[in-house]
Amino acid sequence: MNDVSTPAASGHGRHELRGLRQLPGSRLPQGRFGRMFPHLPALHLSDGQLDAVAGVMAEVDARDPAGDNDRIPSGYTYLGQFVDHDLTFDPVSSLTRQADPDALVDFRSPRFDLDNVYGRGPADQPYLYDFDAPGRLLVGRHDDELDLPRNEQQVALIGDPRNDENVFVSQLHLTMQLFHNQVIDRLDEFPEQARPDETRFTTAQRIVRWHYQWLVVHDFLRRIVGDATLGDVLREEPLIGGGRPVEQVRLRFFRWRNDAFMPVEFSVAAYRFGHSMVRARYSLNTFVSGLPIFTSASSRAEPLAHFGGFRQLPPHWQIEWRRLFPLAGADPALVQPARLIDTRLAPPLLNMPPEQVASGTRNLALRNLTRGVRLGLPSGQDVARLMGLPVLTAAELELPEPGPAPLWYYLLREARLIAEGRHLGPAGGRIVAEVILGLLSQDPGSYLRVEPGWRPFLPSAVAGDFTMPDLIAFTGFGLDEVTGPAS
Fold first, then answer.
1. Strand partners, 212
2. Coil, strand or helix: which one is 116?
3. pLDDT in tens, 1-18
4. Distance, CA of 15 to chain centre
5. What is the pTM assigned to this prediction?
6. Which of 68, 275, 304, 331 is 20 to 30 A from 31 in CA distance terms?
7. Contacts (Cβ under 8 Å, ≥6 apart) of 125
């Protein structure tokens, strides 16, 4: 989900990339993007062909409830965006040139370590932390509501500026900050968690990270790829001699030589499923409802007409999470579902505001398709064949003209045909599951690597489990009903 959330200041397309005449490969040991399927040929499509494909990707009726996904609440759309920002940040690749993935630096560590929240820590980035309460993250407050901390020009003081690109992801970032603060405040309730090589801050940070990693796998990923795919990649294995089973990751397609890299097939195609899940309009709380995620105008031009970000949260806009996540005890009818995973994008994404794009087209479908070609992604058919899966026919793909399909488009269409749009299909789900679990398993600080038999222990609806609704309930943030100004 990179393009929709990269501010213009990041400077897309300002730098020439090396290796432009070579088929991209993944040869470098760390800190880079690479290719998951390096031996497949790149798909070449003309600008006209890309325009034609993008032209059929508009949502026909954004209000049709038949397009709603009853399996995935809307909050997971933006949790997916938050997770992406935790893993990847490429501020220099171009939509107008062929690009070599080995030349693209991943400015996010490809780990689930919440570096988009913690930054480089309180010693290197003290402005992210509360001077009056050591170890706590700084939280902003105005108009009797909580917001991200900001400077005088309303710029968010956070580890990743992209987490301010819309109200939902900014309030999710704030919730993660509050989660850390609650954990460090209540650390004395869990004395068995203290380790001699950790400070109070790093103990709280590990607890936060591991609970976050668990919910990414067992709540978010399970919903996105389906039980069967998740169960095939992540297995519970009994320990010899008894004891708690441990989780083991089994990869078939995601391979690396030294440290894991970020595959462009994931970041530029498979993981961009979330764009099709975006609703045309949302309700934020009892008072603010029926607004689009973006309007084509600048966010600052019409501040109360949309949920775009890069600005102070307007008064009475505090989020009610019961409208985006299935919170315990809340009315299920209030939860807004995500849209089905398919080849249709909501109208606001086809004409984004200028601050959401660095240059070029404001049509997100065309941006995604163009980026895939410039980075030399293979066709969806070639990927399916390599994975040993049935290949979608021309009639099933419904492209403007028969032929090889862009990988992103193919995986969205696969999800709609094979999984009825409720989760990713076998190829898309496998790519997403293997990359997320592969990165987690090679991370020297993750629970899967350090303690694969670990289970969550913070309060939750189900003992030994931990979901995004559990995290929200633990913070206490976004649980109360919000009302408008007094009349």
1. none
2. helix
3. 444 333 333 333 333 333
4. 26
5. 0.90
6. 275
7. 119, 159
